[in-house]
Amino acid sequence: MRLTLLGTGDAAGVPVYGCGCLVCARARVDVTWRRKPSCALLEAGDTRILIDAGLHDLTDRFPPGSLDAILITHFHPDHVQGLFPWRWGKSDPIPVYCPPDTLGCADLYKNHGLFDFRPLSKFQSLPLGAPTVTPLPLIHSKPTFGYWIDYEGLRLAYLADTVDLPPKTEGFLHDTPVDLLVLDCTHPPQHSPPRNHNDLDLALAITTRIKPHHTVLTHVGHELDAWLLDHPNALPFCVKVGRDGLSLAL
């Protein structure tokens, strides 16, 4: 099983429009430091699943027939905006699994084009080709799912966007060994409790409680990147910050 992080930025991305901080200035000069909106590609056996669709160039990346399904964590624009032009294409219908949010995003549900939206139920596992996927409710400003993915005993938990974890979701992950945790960490340590997204202290506390073998942080904002420049030894050995294009083999 392989997960490739195609976009690891928060809603503003890196560089942030109009920002002159060191991180944003660096990203304007060197594209390898940029962070695009949320998106990842899961490959398990012969199955290829897109997780979120924040990128604008998805129709260039994925020709007809190259994906088996799309998993949507929630319907904020930076996670689904790549679907808007894609839906008017010509191909067989593409199943899109998502939380039961009937508001969706703008008119995606009403004018869905080639997408077949299929709302999921929390903790109800289903096979998606080779892997089995279990939706896990998260804490965010819209109905949001993380996804626990099992393929031949290899276990991945993809949790973005969230601020901390609901008790039942944490219990599920605590009782089930996780090989790789991909976790929302948008902010550097905050003086007050964060809203809607984890800060680094909260993300590290989650990893301490769940005890995954490895953790990769995603949905990263420019302020966290800047903070880590000043604190290069802040992360434990088993925790790393994701980058666009990072490929993770389990």
CATH homology superfamily name: Ribonuclease Z/Hydroxyacylglutathione hydrolase-like
How many discrete structural domains? 1
Instruction: Give average pLDDT, whole number.
Output: 97
Structural class by sheet pairing and helices? alpha/beta
User: Strand-and-helix sequence, N→C?
Assistant: EHEEHEHHEEEEEEHEHEHEE
Number of strands: 14
Share of residues in strands? 25-35%
Report the uncertain regions: none
CATH T-level fold name: Metallo-beta-lactamase, Chain A
CATH class: Alpha Beta
Largest sheet: 7 strands, mixed
The multimeric state of the shown protein is: single chain
Number of helices: 7
How far is the first residue's CA from the last residue's CA? 5 Å
Strand order of the largest sheet: 6-5-4-3-2-1-14
Structure, described:
- The chain has 7 helices and 14 strands.
- It is α/β, with parallel strands linked by helices and 250 residues long.
- The protein is globular and about 50 Å long.
- The model has no long low-confidence stretch (mean pLDDT 97).
